[in-house]
Amino acid sequence: MLTTLRATAGRPPTDHTASGVLRLLLTLCGLTALLLTAATLVAAPARAADAPAASRPPTQAAHLADRLRENPVHITDQLPRAVPRSMAPDFARLAERTGVPTYVLVLPGQGGSVEDLLGAVHDRLGRDGLFVLLDESGVRKAAAYGVRAPAEAARTTTVFELPYDAGPLRSFERFVDVVAQGTEKAEARADAARESFREGNEPEEMYIGPADRRNQSFVTGIALTGVPLTILLLAPCVRRARRRFPRATPLRPAKGRTAKGRTAKGRTAKGVAATGVAATGRPTSPRTAAGRSVLRRLLIPGLALATAAAIAVTAPLVFDQTKRGAAPLPGHEEMTARVERVAEGLAQDPVYVDPESPPVLDEAQLSRLHDRIERFGRSEGGGPVYVTVVPHLPEDESAGDEELFAAAVRSQLSKADGVGEADGVYVVADPLDGYIDVFNHGLRLDSLRLLFDVPEFISYGDDRSHEADDHLLGERLDALMTYLDESPRTDEPASSGEPARPVSPEAENSLPPLYATDFWPGLFVGAVAALLLLGLVVGVLGIVAAVLRRRTPPVLRTQALKLAAPAKPSEAYLRRTAGTELSAAADALAETDGAGWQDLALAWERFDAAMFLVDGDIEGLSSPGGPRTDPATLLAVIILARGARTALDGDTNDRCCAVNPLHGPSAGRRHVRVPAQGNRRRRLSLCPLCLDAATAAPHELPERRLTLPGPAGARVPYDEMEDSPLSALRDGINRLADKVRETSPAR
Asked: Other C-beta atoms within 10 Å of 543: how many?
């Protein structure tokens, strides 16, 4: 080169020389550009390396270790509806009962990352003790480092002994109690709880939800109308059915007073009329009878009203639940703590990553996301982008509503110094489930397009993102920024609008009133159910009455007796008829409310005389093993019982047909010849049918004469029976009743 220079020295420059200089200048420019490019490539990783110190948050374990270093009980601010931070003293008080240093973390559910979290926190903290991790449902993980404590056995016991809605505090309390028992007892208790759960003995839920409360309200409404209406409707129905049954329930003597003892003094009807007291000792004055009738009529309505009042009063005592869960009511500071924390972080950095959640963005992804946000802010129609990587759960301050959370963060961020109106695109990414939501506030972008038209891979992910621990959030956020860059701009700024406010914690955790919601439909259903039950009971009673009428002949009305009474009844017929007539008379006396006191007294006198003859045992007449009663006594019972019923009807005629007393009351007297032998005529009381026969066919009267079974199968005329009070019947039924009392052993 020196030779060349010498050769050219002193010679004037030529065009060839100028061309070389130009090439030299071009070479120098290329080298300069190469150096600048290399400097740019070196600067990018350098900024990425500097990012942790500037904006990258500390690792999850380091952050939690710092919190436990300040306080051994750390409650996240992301679960105020389930575990308010004001519960920290309660957890600390319980932790002292373990007997070892205990560190408590209450965090949102961490998914599969919980396995190594406690170990990493212990390593960062550098202290030994019992580490317990809880989420919104209870104890999730526990481990002992450097101390002796049955952590896993205690956790297992809480899982199988408590229902899922017991709450974190009650779950931790059970955990502490098991730890305090020692290793041997704790493991035995855990095995027993696990075995009991396998056998199907699941713990019952401690709280109810709105659906359960609606069911309680519905049942209360049904009971409040159904039970009283059933009483009002069925009582008269059953009373009428008893009257129709062939065999009514017998009227039993009062306790301590037999049928004989009631008229042992032998009061007559005249004495009863004078004293106004029936032969049984019952007052029969009109005022008393009217009062008894009023009380009887008011008994059923009063019982129904009392039942309705009892149901209305006791239902709130039985269904006394007022809360849906164990969580106490959070304060205002607890409901705004996380929003303030996130807004404070966004004021320093447009990307906020929750330090309490598993890491989902590495350093390179954070650096690239910052670059994309910066470029979008400088683009035409672009603006600020705020990215929050925090979990969203029903137990947080927004009740899991991402749109409401973004609006609250924007409102809080606008209050920060030097920020002003915090317009921009708010990106809400959940590190636990990987979902991404986008909301526009004040930029020239189509808000509805960002809400509904974001590609599914960006919003919800795909199979690859679902299987990845980080849900591929870095890749998907980068794709979102590309989508924002390509989004069309609008002429005017737009906004997603104001989201609906969530239910307050107090309203969310409280149950509806018992007398609300489905209580009103329950009232209607209760009334319908009472009517259906009435129809069912009426049908059943009708079937029962029909069966009983088929098995036992019904009690005939007095006017029909002469048409159906046999002239030669068997002893079984007399026994069955006597029981039926006594039951009918007893029922009529028990339910009568329109008879005068004189008629009532006469009816009781005749009825008591009939009861004397059977020793007060009506059921014994129809019982196969009952005491035997002779046919004459059975006939007297029938006549007296029928006489009691006719007295209640106001019939003062005390004479019955002398040819056959089973024919019923007499209609007149006439001289007739009844015996088959002889020509002697007697003046006898006859029923209408026998009166006609005495005129038209007198020869038929001997065949109509009533005969009773006698010794050795013979038939004996009823008025010729020996040692029978029937001889007094020719003087009337009242005389028969007196004769019975005169022959009574009590006399």
From this structure: 10
Distance CA 406, CA 390 (A): 11
Is 78 within 8 Å of 356 (Cβ atoms)? yes
Strand boundaries in 333-445, DSSP class E = 351-353, 385-389, 424-429, 436-441
Query: DSSP letter string over 123-191?
Result: HHHT--EEEEEE-SSSEEEEEEESS---HHHHHHHHHHHS-TTS-HHHHHHHHHHHHHT-HHHHHHHHH
**Mean pLDDT by 10-residue block, N- to C-terminus, for the chain (747 residues)?**
36 42 51 45 38 54 95 96 95 96 93 78 95 94 95 96 94 96 95 93 90 95 95 83 53 38 37 38 46 73 93 94 91 95 94 94 95 94 94 93 94 80 93 94 91 93 92 95 94 85 87 94 95 91 77 53 72 84 84 74 88 80 68 89 85 84 85 68 84 82 85 82 80 87 65
Asked if residue 709 lies in contact with residue 571, where contact means CB atoms within 8 angstroms, the answer is: yes
Phi, psi of 95 (to 5 degrees): -65, -25
**Predicted local confidence at residue 565, as pLDDT:** 78
pTM for this prediction: 0.64
Residues across the chain: 747
- Phi first, then psi: what are they for 717, rounded to 5°? -55, 140
717-to-278, 575, 635, 676 alpha-carbon distances in Å: 34, 18, 12, 11
- C-alpha span between 224 and 661 (Å, rounded): 55
Name the 3-class secondary structure at 76. coil
Distance CA 704, CA 565 (A): 10
For residue 715, the cross-strand partners are 709
Q: How far is CA 640 from CA 636, 644, 715, 734, in A?
A: 6, 6, 23, 9
> What three-state secondary structure class fits 528?
helix
Q: Are 213 and 512 in contact (CB under 8 A)?
A: yes
Closest residue by Cα to residue 361 from 476, 479, 482? 476
Predicted local confidence at residue 231, as pLDDT:
92
What tokens does 188 get? 């035995």
Q: Give the model's pLDDT for residue 299.
A: 87
Tokens of 463: 């199979």
Q: Which residue is it, tokens 């679960």?
A: 79
**Does residue 614 contact residue 581 with C-beta atoms inside 8 Å?**
no
∠306-307-309 over CA atoms, to 5°? 65
Q: Looking at residue 30, what is its pLDDT?
A: 55
- Residue 97 CB neighbour total at 10 angstroms: 12
Distance CA 741, CA 747 (A): 7
- The helix/strand/coil state of 389 is strand
Angle, helices 210-244/519-551, rounded to nearest 10 degrees = 30
d(CA 193, CA 664): 81
Residues 6+ apart with CB under 8 A from 491: 444
The rounded distance, in Å, linking the Cα atoms of 253 and 131 is 79
Strands 351-353 and 385-389: parallel
Q: Are 436 and 480 within 8 A, CB to CB?
A: yes
Which among 615, 657, 613 has a CA at the least distance from the CA of 632?
613
| Closest of 636, 642, 644 to residue 719, by C-alpha | 636
